[in-house]
Amino acid sequence: ELAVPCLVAVCAVIAVGSPAINEVRRPNNNNNRPGRFLSLPVPNKCTQRPKEFFYRGHNYFFSGHQPQYRNLRVDWLDARNICREYCMDLVSMEGQEENNIVFRLIQQGDVPYIWTSGRLCDFKGCENRRDLEPKSLYGWFWSATRQKMAPTNTVPNGFSFNPWSATGHKKVQQPDNAEFDINGTNESCLAVLNNVYNDGIAWHDVACYHEKPFICEDNEELLNYVAATNRGIRL
Q1: Going by C-beta distance under 8 Å and a sequence separation of 6 or more, which residues neighbour residue 228?
Q2: Both ends of the chain: CA-CA distance in Å?
Q3: 35: which of 91, 119, 122, 207 lies 20 to 30 Å off by Cα?
């Protein structure tokens, strides 16, 4: 049976299966947009997706290296949707080698920041989950693969260091949800920042409405879906 890819703004399957979630975007002073759905893949775009570099069976591209996106800065969900139309999703750094590839791209290009698929499970469907409490430690997952992350105060499996920054706006270990104290907006999305806090290149929790460039990575679920529904397509 063909599994239709998750089409709502956040699909969380962490530890146990969860229902599909429609994430309603938190209003803030700069933006007051309604909840939005994830985009379906576009078969023609999937066949012509940019393939800038390759790692362990997946193609990747950085938006800043593509002419049509060179100067584009978008919020987290719009970044996901651009990737998804290409049968891709935001990058998930699930091992140190993959993380190093992303860090190296940022360093070599002097890129100030990028979005990843990292997301905090703080929306409807995540409540009353003891395995996610406290959320700052246990509530993070890779939305592209729906894999739960290691506790944020530990070294992830396969890493030799903790990629979360040791500092930030509040001068404490990330994630710190600092913007909540400023305007009541949760920092629910994971960005990689380039020495913004004199901390080198590191992971930070950031409010999802901020606009950044992004890295897309092949998404097997979307590629398989398009292959199964478009006989003979070459991906």
Answers
A1: 2
A2: 21
A3: 91
